[in-house]
Design a protein that fits this description.
The protein has 3 helices and 15 strands. It is mainly beta and 313 residues long. A hairpin with a 5-residue loop joins strand 9 and strand 10. The two termini are 28 Å apart. The relative contact order is 0.16.
């Protein structure tokens, strides 16, 4: 039983006190967080590559039931496309700022926990009369009507996810919801089972289905840079690759992925209570697809660069 849970139980039942008190209703603490089969996520296998140097300690998340953590995330996106052999100049999307609120709904006796996730605001910089700015706002602002939860174990491995999506959400916004789902899958880093010291390195690798119908292999590597009584800082590296595969098509045209690779790196500083102190990540992705209509086909190239910064409140 975790100290935070034990402290809650002791405060509720009045253990250690001989002073008469009024009767209280015991609070039932579940042995573990139960997740319905349709929401279960498979936990990745974490491989420890190096234990680090110095005194090792066990890295575990221990959120407190009832606590709320808010974060602010800014995103800068740049996209460059080519059709056949003709490359278009890169297009920079308007800077977007999102605020979200994560409320710890429940902590079980084994340390697993459930967090309610809610996007509380979206801001898109730029002239509201600019068609691109207007399009981004129309696509992202409805996400504030989406609610959901994620469950994880003390090692940060996601156990389950659910998003409640309004029926009238437009197709573009629904696609953005899938990106939110991908973010929740990696809300916290997966921590090693063994105690580690600064300099420790570990990784996990697993297949991932994206919102665009692409199945890719996702490998995430971590290095422990710093650890203190409040939390720790990690260097993060993300490598993605996809084999050639068919893509969602229409009766008029078919599409196939020829190649895809991506790489990201950054740093994230987290608290043991599950809150984010800061995070900065840069990701670059390149993909080639082929669209075939009748007897004609065209190759399409896409290069995307995404920079995100997160601060906790």
């Amino acid at each position: 039983m975790r100290p935070t849970v034990l402290a809650l139980v002791l405060s509720l039942v009045g253990c250690g006190s001989s002073t008469p008190t009024s009767s209280t209703t015991p609070v039932a603490i579940a042995p573990t967080i139960e997740v319905a089969p349709e929401h279960v996520q498979s936990a990745p296998e974490v491989v420890l590559d190096a234990r680090g140097e110095g005194t090792p300690r066990l890295l575990r998340f221990a959120p407190v039931a009832g606590a709320t953590h808010a974060i602010v995330m800014t995103m800068d996106i740049e996209v460059a496309m080519s059709l056949g052999g003709n490359a278009a100049p890169p297009t920079r999307a308007p800077r977007t700022t999102m605020t979200s609120e994560n409320h710890v709904r429940e902590v079980a006796a084994d340390g697993s926990f459930r967090i309610d996730n809610r996007l509380t605001g979206v801001e898109v910089e730029g002239d509201p009369n600019d068609p691109m700015v207007a399009a981004y706002r129309a696509q992202l602002e409805p996400l504030t009507r989406v609610s959901g939860w994620s469950a994880a174990d003390p090692r940060g491995r996601v156990l389950g996810i659910e998003l409640v999506i309004p029926d009238d959400l437009n197709p573009a916004s629904r696609q953005s919801v899938e990106s939110v789902r991908d973010t929740l899958r990696q809300l916290l880093p997966s921590l090693p089972e063994e105690p580690v010291a600064p300099g420790a390195r570990w990784h996990w690798e697993a297949p991932l289905a994206t919102s665009n119908g692409i199945t890719l292999i996702n490998r995430v590597s971590y290095e422990l840079l710093e650890v203190d009584e409040v939390g720790f800082m990690l260097a993060v590296q993300v490598d993605q690759r996809a084999e050639p595969q068919s893509l969602p098509s229409t009766p008029e045209a078919s599409a196939e992925l020829l190649s895809m690779s991506g790489r990201g790196e950054g740093r994230v500083s987290l608290r043991f209570d599950g809150g984010v102190r800061s995070s900065a990540m840069s990701v670059a992705v390149e993909a080639r697809t082929r669209v075939t209509q009748g007897e004609s086909s065209m190759d399409v190239g896409t290069r995307l660069r995404l920079v995100t910064e997160i601060t906790g409140r």
